[in-house]
Amino acid sequence: MEETTGEILFETRLHASRPYISNYPPQHQQLNEGAKGSYLSRLLSSSGISQLKERWRKHAHPTKVRRYASLFVSSRGDLVAVASGNQITILQKDDDYQKPCGVFICKSITSFHCGAWSETHDVLGVADNSDTIYLIRANGEEITRISKSHIKSSSPIVGLIVQDDADMKKSCLCSFTIITADGLIHDIEISQDPSASVFSPLASSSGTMLKQFPQDMFCLDYQPGLSLFSIISSAGSLQRTTNGLYSLSLCRKSGNLALEVLVSTQLEGFFSIPKDYVGHITSPKVSISPQGSFVATLDMGGSLNTFKFDEEQHSLTKCSLGEGNELHQGNKESDKGNILVNGVLDFAWWSDDILAIAERNGNITMINICTGAMLCKKDETMYSFPLLERVPQLLGKLFLLETKPSIQNNESTEEIRTSSFHLVECDCGDMNNKFDWANFQWSLVSLSERSIPEMYDILISRQEYQAALMFADQHGLDKDEALKSQWLHSSQGVNEIKTLLPNIKDQIFILSECVGRFGPTEDAVRALLDLGLCITDRYRFSEPEVDEHSKVWDCLMARLKLLQYRDRLETFLGINMGRFSLQDYKKFCNLPIKEAAISLAESGKIGALNLLFKRHPYSLTSSLLDVLAAIPETLSVQTYGQLLPGSSPPPSISLREEDWVECDEMVTFIISRVPESHESYTQIRTEPIVKQFLGSQWPSVSELSSWYKKRARDIDILSGQLDNSMCLIDFACRKGISQLQSFLEEISYLHQLIYSEENEEMNFSMSLTTWESLPDYERFKLMLIGVREDTVIKRLHSKAIPFMKKRFHSLTVPSRDEKTDCSAESFLVRWLKEIASENKLEMCSVVIEEGSREVQHNNFFQCEAEVVDCALQCIYACSVTDKWSMMASILSKLPFPCDSEAASLKERVRLAEGHIEAGRILAHYQVRFFLCM
């Protein structure tokens, strides 16, 4: 990475967050909470440990400090292991380190202080406080463990490294290199099969190194790309080490596993705990920068030193960053400012010349080693016990492990941090006894370098809008993206409409939101519509030659949609009695007005349907009949009679005042540019536009007549309510559709037939469709069904004769210049002949007697000749031989015309009388006799 002097931008992302639960040995699991907290203290104060403490005091041998947590990152960052107490949680890049892919728990009370990943084989090697090495698969399964005695070394393990090269990728063996404090290198190879075994535990021939480092090594780092080791060791004598002088060496690994010392220098500090030390304990650390240009060291007191490495000159030079060539904090005489000393918990290289420092107060600071410039200080984010580890093969990528006690009794973050540090501020005699391992939890955070646009996008994606807006101000970025995202993720109420949308410069976006977004409340909907109308008001038709392909037309189309939505809002509130529902309103706006009307009709909401017709008369004209046909057939016609169409449209239709966009130019544009299949075609057809576009497409009288007939038949078929059918046609007639008058009469005949008092005994029923299909004579017969001698005259006068007069008798009425034509047989004559053939001569007698009175006025017969002819045919049609008296009575009541036909009729009657008399005589003597013509 090139030298950086400006600000560093990085993304902070929280990954896994897991509570740490220490697994105590089984025999101690029954301890109560109070006893459990002091379990380690009692255990570590046993006689064996006391003897070790005493031996250390006598021989000034350093005491190993238990690490509260460790972080092990694979070379490409694909795997991350979090060691907390005696538990190792393994996370993987595939799921963004969110869930463990493996968990390893050591049954003994221990902690892990060094480790390395073999990323080629997905195997983790770690060493614990007892210098036992564990080899663990990525799923948390233990492959094997190697005790300290197995590698035949009495010195503590200070390093564990892996070199993943091409040869190792082809091998099924996993190789690790173990480095002990006495300078020996041990190479081990592990097979990954279930019966894992350890191969070739060899000690290197590192005698030269041992001569140069007579005392113990305390910590080291390895840079595999450069084959460089950085080592902190004793300074050559016990006295010098006790006085705080140590040796920093850079060595290169040679082919025979020996270390070639390139350069060595002395440094001050303490990497082992001095006698009677009281204070904060930091895990010592040394690290080479990614390209090997610098080395940084951190001692146990929290002091950080940096050195520049010149490989050609084989020199290590301490970087001059303030007084004493160290990183100081609060040094007013230093021109570098805010430089750190005695307050560092951990560090890691961000790039070859930038160091990320975790401060004791929880801040993360990044400093350019070459210039001393502070590139970033995360004061707003305070971490508890932060540990840092870089991804070896990536620049600008760090992992941060935060470890803190569980929150109890509503403790604040600062109280938790303070109590945490008190746990590690102790003297060397009991510093391992006061750390309550069972009450700690950890969180894994990643820090990734980002460019200014990337960082801006990240802040927006995290919905940190205030930070994003401040960031945009700081770097001169367009705030629109942050404001748009904030709007899209807001409640989109009236307050957001007034405070967010007006600050967005992208008017097209605002307009699209006003058109495509529905506010959660009525006020929010109105606010969006008003804002959209205000924006589009600037695009009036000032120039008639506006290009049809111009974006101006898009704004004009949007204005039409806004007007349509506003009209729909008023209609929606009207049909819902002022109640607003976002979901229902959205559905209503997106629904074609015809479907909305049909839905109301099907629900029988006549009041709402009436309002819909009044608000959208032109839009509904073309579908008027379909909508009315959807009204339930059982609903009384009187309830929706005002909606039924007449022969002409209503004389006056009141609409809102037309908007300036609802003009001829816009109608022309819609006709020429917007096809009916377009998704917005319905949304832009406001009532004034439809009025100009289509006008009033009122159905013709023939269409209305056909619809009314069909609707009447459907009502009868589907509901059986003939009353509603007749009422519907009656409304139509009163609304000026006179062509339906005869149809109304047909229905009324059927209605009288079905609902007459005489029908109560017969329980007669018939559909309107069947009634219409019957010939007129069959209908006439049905009108007389069930009559008796005492009721037939009444039925004829009330139903049958009026029907016959309209269907038949009127056709035979002559004009003034024509004579009466009695040759056509009327319905009554046919019916009398039929009942006479059924020997119902009494019924015939009653009807003929009634018809003989004032023939010209009672409408039973056309003339006297028809009466006489009908009577004779009835007499001759009767086949019984006991009706001679009835026959004679019929003949005695017949009238005779005064014209030329009277003589012939009288002759026919005389012959009939003779035959009747002969029949009576023969019947008296029991001789069978039939009257014939």
Automatic annotation (TrEMBL):
Keyword vocabulary terms for this entry: Endoplasmic reticulum, Protein transport, Transport
A Pfam family assignment: Sec39
Keyword Amino-acid biosynthesis among record annotations: no
Originating organism: Datura stramonium (Jimsonweed)
Chief place where the protein resides: endoplasmic reticulum
Designated name of the protein: Sec39 domain-containing protein
Keyword Protein transport set for record: yes
Domain Sec39: 597-892
Origin superkingdom: Eukaryota
Annotated localization: Endoplasmic reticulum
InterPro entries: Sec39_domain (IPR013244)
